[in-house]
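In the lab's daily routine, each protein ends up as an entry in a very long ledger. A line of letters takes care of the sequence, but it says nothing directly about the fold. The fold becomes a row of whole numbers, each drawn from a learned catalogue of backbone shapes. The protein below has been through that process, and both of its lines are reproduced in full:
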Amino acid sequence: MVEMMHNRTFDEIKIGDSATLSRLCDMKDLELFGVATGDLNPTHYSAESAERFAHHRKVVAHSMWGGALISALLGNELPGPGTVYRGQEIEFKGRVEVGDTITITITVTEKTPPDDVVLDCLAQNQKGEVVFTGRARVAAPLEKVVQPRMELSEVALRRRHHVFEDIIARCAGLEPVSVAVCHPCDQVSLEGPMDAARLGLIRPILIGPEGKIRAVAQEFGIDISGIQVIDTAHSHESAEKAVALCRSGEAEALMKGSLHTDEMMHEVASRDKGLRTSRRISHVFVMDVPTYPRTLLITDAAINIYPTLEDKMDIVQNAIELAHVLGVELPKVAILSAVETVYPKINSTIEAAALCKMADRGQITGALLDGPLAFDNAISEEAAKIKKINSPVAGRADILLVPDLEAGNMLAKQLSYLADADAAGIVLGARVPIVLTSRADSAKARLASCAVAVLFAHARRAKGEIKAG
């Protein structure tokens, strides 16, 4: 049934008529009010700031947050639709704290034809304490209005993108890492490493047809002066030489340019001349999802199409090591499937259970694993509670291990395009970290991918696995 709004015309209003409105003040109210008004006074968002600057132990609401409730009551109830504000006086007598329930009462005290109405305003908290008093003057509507109650757009708060900025900031003060940039023969693939070089993240070594690289640099105004360029005849030779530089230790990371991913990774995976180790090579997406409270790693969504159980053991260990590098001491790994129970007809549920047992027996280390978990149970504590899943991982996952590449790739892109997430990516399990860039990547995502490789390379130095190149 549609809820209707009714106003009271000037002729219908009587002295002594009143209306009330009660509203719970919570942090979302204050954040929305701050976003709408631009009021950044820290006392309204931080208990520490409230105590420091206002000598108050709790976050206090904006004074005009309460004043705005008077406007809502006037416009919705008395006089209602068609009311026009003419003046407002307010005297604030106390603070509104987060968690307080404020009751606003307005009472008609004066009427002056043709439409002038004056109302007393009183605001009290749940304890009966007066928060503010005031006097409103409005032009009351002259025509009767009966209409369906308006439905405004829903508003959801989300945190700002900050994960990539934090990752890049962590590289401040670190020695730049030498990076073999494989075949950077278009604007995007050349700008990425040069932007990272300007920030002091990397020392790029450009590997590709020198004439083409310099032509691209000149066409798009990219300064490559002082940068080492290794000339090659074609992309296949670029991949060979870039991998050779990493294998010899001259470069500590590898970065894809404008050649196809398969062409470069074929050289990486070569048994004789590549960068293989005993560990399975895998890709990890580093996701900054504004609607999720922590950095989210998704693996594998780019390299292993249908990984086996043995493959997944390496894939998850690679992601765990990356999480450690990013500052997550004990990452929570959710092993995804379509359901949260072991079901013999769904192979990913069986593999999830096996991986958890491997972790119990020390075959996978450095993290908490749980699975199978459906996606909702992995990232939503509320969904996990509804399903009665008692798990330290459910609803708080740092790493999502997907069943196969198709599921992972779709998941990462859905987060990017439907949840406004940013995605950076890195390939691990080889002798050096590998940065895979895409034409669709933002400049910030490319920088973040470089920064992740820098942090990973420095972590390997600290372990003595490589020497500074």
Notes: The chain has a mean pLDDT of 92. The chain has 14 helices and 18 strands. The longest helix spans residues 443-462. The chain has three domains: 4-147, 158-276, 279-429.
